[in-house]
Amino acid sequence: MNRTDRTIISNKLSAVSIRDFLLVTTVWKRSSFRVVARELGISPSGLSHQVRKVEEALGTTLFERSSQQVKATLEGEVLLSHIQDVLGVVGKLDLLAVKTSRPFGGHLKLGAISTIGAYVLPHVVNLFEANFPDVRIDLLEGKTEGVTQRLRGSEIDMMLSCCFADNADLETKPLFTERFDLIANVAHPLAAKTSINVQDLDASEFMTMADGEGYSEDTLPAAIRTTQHDDNACRTEIRGLSLETIGALVSMKGGASMVPSLASPRLSTFPNVKIVSISGRAPQRTIYAVDFC
């Protein structure tokens, strides 16, 4: 391409803005001038004029116009696809500029699963207030499946969770590892002890947290790992419950379970409940910051 050709192209495209490109791609997606004009609050004739300006700058007709539908021409399909790519790059540059000038773009939407939120999110808020006072932080708490769905749907920017090894579309960064304590009804034999070994746990009187919500299975004693997958075993599986609900179940129903150590001080205030530390290779979980790839 010689200098004259570049000058002609530059002069033509100088009359076209990013907004003009957005208009023609929106018409392409909606296949209607009238619908797009109504959505954008402009007149159909004004929209048509903007589209023709882009067509003149590109030197080709982008759309076949009829009374029923607006359809892209063959050349238009190719050009509109490239225009869409250009807009994607512009969007990334704009987002990068915002994130570079202000941490987290000035606004972070953070989710957490229910067995983490109450014990970790207050520390996160304090951290942001101390280090990023200009960043607005919105918090959401829920069950693992629901919060993950919101992350994939871009309703939140990041989530705090555990056990995400099999999710290829999610990027995980380990934050910290948390040990578990035994929570037992005062009538449970282990409640009389100040410390126990993990092998002392009785699976028949034990409430286990479901996969993806609690401890790593490889840190559980063999008896509990076996009963987790045995439908005839005498035990209760906990799924999607808050740690306060687990404490209430142990308090009223009896038996025992395990809870993250961060929750132990609060749960120890429940009636008829005893928190017992687990010595040796105690069950644990890793808390991750999870982002959508």
Spell out the blueprint of helices and strands.
Blueprint lengths: L2 H11 L4 H13 L2 H8 L3 H15 L4 E3 L4 E3 L1 H28 L5 E7 H18 L4 E7 L1 H9 L5 E4 L8 E16 L9 E3 L8 E4 L12 H7 L7 E3 L4 H11 L2 E5 L3 H4 L5 E7 L4 E9 L1
Parallel strand pairs: 3-4, 3-5, 7-11, 8-9, 8-10
Antiparallel strand pairs: 1-2, 5-12, 6-10, 6-11, 6-12
- Calculate the mean pLDDT score and round it: 78
Tally of domains? 3
State the total count of DSSP E strands: 12
Class of the largest domain, according to the CATH hierarchy?
Alpha Beta
Percent of residues in helices comes to: 40-55%
Radius of gyration: 29 Å
Secondary structure category:
alpha/beta
Number of helices: 10
Q: Return residue spans where pLDDT drops below 50 for at least 5 consecutive residues.
A: 1-10, 215-234
Question: Considering the protein shown, what is the CATH homologous superfamily of the largest domain?
Answer: Periplasmic binding protein-like II
Bin the strand percentage: 15-25%
N→C terminal distance: 39 Å
The ordered H/E elements are HHHHEEHEHEHEEEEHEHEHEE
Q: What is the annotated CATH architecture of the largest domain?
A: 3-Layer(aba) Sandwich
**Biggest β-sheet description:** 10 strands, mixed
- What name is given to the CATH topology of the largest domain? D-Maltodextrin-Binding Protein, domain 2
User: What coarse outline follows from CA principal-axis ratios?
Assistant: elongated
